[in-house]
Amino acid sequence: MIIARISPRTGGKTTSAGWQAHALHERGYDVQAFEADYSRQLTEWDACSGGFPFPVQQQASPMFHMNVPSTMAPGQIGVVDCGHAEDHRGIVQSVLRVADLAILNAAPTSADIDRIERLPMRALIDDIATLRADDAPPPTWVLLNRTANGAKAT
Predict the structure, then answer these.
(1) What DSSP state is assigned to residue 3?
(2) What digits encode the pLDDT tens for the residues 17-43?
(3) CB-count exposure of residue 144 (10 Å: 0-12, 13-18, 19+)
(4) CATH architecture of structural domain 2-144
(5) pLDDT tens digit string along 88-131?
(6) CA–CA distance, 88 with 64 (Å, rounded to integer)
(7) Phi and psi, residue 123, nearest 5°
(8) What is the pLDDT at residue 149?
(9) Alpha carbon 38 to chain centroid distance?
(10) Which H, E and C letters describe 73-127, residue by residue?
(11) CB 30 within 8 A of CB 106
(12) Which run of H or of E encompasses 23?
């Protein structure tokens, strides 16, 4: 199973991916994290923490869909920290080609929710369907996980 953490821009993906992978590991799942972001923040966190109890593999490449599935053991869960979809669309599309679940991180602000429609994140997710084995976009959940100071709902 591959779980992709995506967002149009900064949205807490690295923090969410790291904690999700750690929580799954603590519950006994075989986990591998994938750094699909050129910023390498998940890798830096891994190094600063003295090492996660699961591997973190560098895969910031538009060839993610070709490189990763064969590296995963049967039953293993891959948690992917994707870069910003606005800047790294090719990598995000490649990850979504093989993702079993996409979690779209967003702040509960008008600007972030607007980005879901205008990037358009919805089109990015829906358009990948033709490149997937099942001809369907991956199931997608929206996680409203961060609030900016002074943010107001409209």
Answers:
(1) E
(2) 999 999 999 999 999 999 999 989 999
(3) middle
(4) 3-Layer(aba) Sandwich (3.40)
(5) 999 999 999 999 999 998 878 887 777 777 667 888 899 999 99
(6) 12
(7) -65, -40
(8) 65
(9) 13
(10) CCCCEEEEEECCCCCCHHHHHHHHHHCCEEEEEECCCHHHHHHHHHCCHHHHHHH
(11) no
(12) helix 13-26
Residue 152: the pLDDT is: 60
Residue with tokens 């807490």: 12
Over 70: is that where the pLDDT of 153 sits?
A: no
Give the tokens for residue 148.
């900016």
Half-sphere exposure of 149 (CA within 13 A, CB side): 0
Question: b vs e for 104-122, b when ≥16 Cβ sit within 10 Å of the residue's Cβ?
Answer: bbbbebeebbebbeebebe
The pTM for the full model equals 0.89
* Residue-level length of the chain: 154
Q: Which helix (H) or strand (E) holds 140?
A: strand 140-144
| Pairwise CA distance, residues 52 & 32, whole Å | 10
* The pair of three-digit structure tokens given for residue 36, joined into one six-digit string: 């699909």
